[in-house]
Amino acid sequence: MLKKILKYLDKHIYLVLLAPFMILSIIFTLIPIINSFYISFFDFSFLNPSKRSFVLLDNFKAVLTDDVFLTALKNTLLFVVVFVLAEMFLSLIVAVLLNAKIKYSNLYKTLIYLPYVVTPIAIGGIISQLFKKNSSLVLFLAKFGFENVTWNSTAPYAFWLVLLIVIWTQLGFFMVIYISAIKEIPEELYEAAEIDGANSFKKFRYITYPLLKNTRTLILFMCLLVSFQLFDLPYLISTIGGTSPGTPNNTTMTLVMYIYANAFRYNNMGLATAASVILFIIIFILSFVQNKLGERS
Amino acid sequence: MKNKHWLIYLILIFLSLLAIAPFIWTLYNSFILNDLDMNKGFLSLDKYGLDNYIYIFTRSKVLRWTLNSIFVTLTITIGNLVFNSMAGYALARFNFKGRKILFYYVLAIMMVPTQIILIPIFLQIANLNMINSYAGLIIPFLINPFGVFLMRQFYLDFPKAIEEAARIDGLSNFGVFSRIIIPLSKGPLMTQGILIFVWNWNSFTLPSIIVNSTDKFTLPLGIYQITNTQYIASVTKALSAMVLTLLPTIILYVLFQKYLTSSKATSGIK
After folding, report:
1. Ordered domains of chain A (ranges, CATH)
2. A98 contact residues in B (CB cutoff 8 A)
3. Which overall architecture, per CATH, does domain B53-267 show?
4. Which of the residue ranges A156-170, B172-186, B200-214 would you say has the lowest mean pLDDT?
5. Nearest to B242 among A94, A105, A125 (CB)
6. Are A223 and A87 in contact (CB under 8 A)?
7. B60, B26, B29: which is closest to B43 by C-alpha?
């Protein structure tokens, strides 16, 4: 009997191979995805999750009239716009520079990628020390017209500091995707252009840039996804030292931070579940558009 | 031409320094014994030492958190390597009903960031009685659709002839997978392994809602508590804790960076 089962499984080995992934992904991803819509129609609390009441759309009404949610939405949108523009521009430029015939380009690439692998909590802790009032860095920046203040607790410095840090940590990741796409461009194209007398800028303008179109679309959507679901760094930077999320005055509050804080700090489950669904819909639309664009190219 | 190269070097060296300066600053300051000596330039040698590190190892639970992090992250990494390769191989090699739908399923859940299903994931982990346990820190993270996707791409290009030769030599399907396929997948396994290790070592959001007793904390949770509650009032001592958190991923990265930054490694992402 056992032998028979083993033989059957070996013949249908894909069942065995897929089983762990399917079981775990259904329990910890698929069911939660479905459940996230279901629970957004209920009023409940973690303290007593079995006792809940059906409230239909009250949670959505509450969240859409909550000033903090609207602030979080506004912050996130501003964040997304600046992050996407800056990151797409910077990662492309750095990738092109690294691809020029220069010495030690691998060393520069390794170093620029490094912040991506560093623990966000360490980055948050380090940044909040570096940008503290009277630190060497802040005193240096004061020479250029910035105020001598603790950046992560002063508006509007905190928002821009978080933005800058996130751009800095993600730059290397997008850069290496660009580099590998540039490496796939056939060398002959550049040689032909050189014979025609094209300079470096023209080669970039008429060969590299247009041929990177698909990569640009990919990076655009990856940047959008990263920036819409931003949480770790702004949360850590704004709460280090015991302050509340979004410090100062919700100016660094993002959508995911709003969900996390309402669910796990303030026990406002209704606001958190409704905000999750709204963010889910945003991400779904983005992915859908990306797929449509991907099919076309 | 020469002048332009000079400018490129200047930009790249500046960016490289910008990328590592904060960490060098942190490492340097973690050896300064007294907070008041920070921001003062070079000091006399007796003002530096290892006391900050000794302090956080003996006076906080950093050692315990480090061991927790190592145990949790290594288990997750091994699980991902095994399970994701299995699923990736099945999707690339076997013709069965629903294969296409399954692949779309993998893509779909890859698009859904855990950040937006925090609450239902928490409820699910609570339902399974895994709150505040190692099981809760490990089991939900044993698989990753990105890893499945990466391995599938690799196996699609993998020459079938090798497997067929092995089958003719009498290996079972299972034997082919474990003795032929896995040993020949070193490249994508390394890329996946390092990324999974780094992501999970650094992970803060989900672990912070899954465990609440300090004995179960991973390193990021512990360090957050230290900085957040001013449990350690000294800045340089906190910085030495930061160094402990960031050192393992940096060492791993420096040793194996070619698996993350080479064109071959990133082609799977596209």
Report:
1. 58-296 (1.10.3720.10)
2. 12
3. Orthogonal Bundle (1.10)
4. B172-186
5. A125
6. yes
7. B29
